[in-house]
Amino acid sequence: MIGSRVGIGYDIHPFAPPEAGRPLVLGGVTIPHPRGLAGHSDADVVLHAVCDAILGAIGCGDLGGRFPDTDPGNEGASSVEFLRAAAATMSGRGFKVCNLDVVVVAEEPKIAPHVPAMKDLIARALGAPEDRISIKAKRPERLGALGRGEGIACESVILLGHRGAIARLRALLRRG
Ligand code: MG
To answer: Which end of the chain has fewer CB atoms < 10 Å from its terminal CB, N or C?
Structure first.
């Protein structure tokens, strides 16, 4: 479609040891689990991958550039704030979400029970209907570091449409 943009995002974080007492936060949702992911912020791989897909689609660099882990202000930050900032940049440039597809790669814990809450949070932050957001989980079948449960990875792809282009297309279609 004219004015559409596609973006891809990927992130991976290792688990912190249980004694670190970090919560496991995925897609903005805190999931009961003995170990959380290690990272400067809340290490939410899902929202980080989604932010990078958005920023990539609009040619605005990446999350690490916008919110560097060298900035003490980002220490322990909620990645929901990163997502809201990326969404505001997207919207400010005239784009809206056509659809977002996310794959969480995790040997543990089970992701599926938490998908509805993640979708609700992401849809609200992006100002998109929930049926435009897809989140699914894949187990790495015990292969490699992810398969040994050493961390969690996430991939995402987003398609954005430009409001101006969509409006022009609708006007053209109305004119026949
Ligand atoms: Mg990250």
So the answer is: C
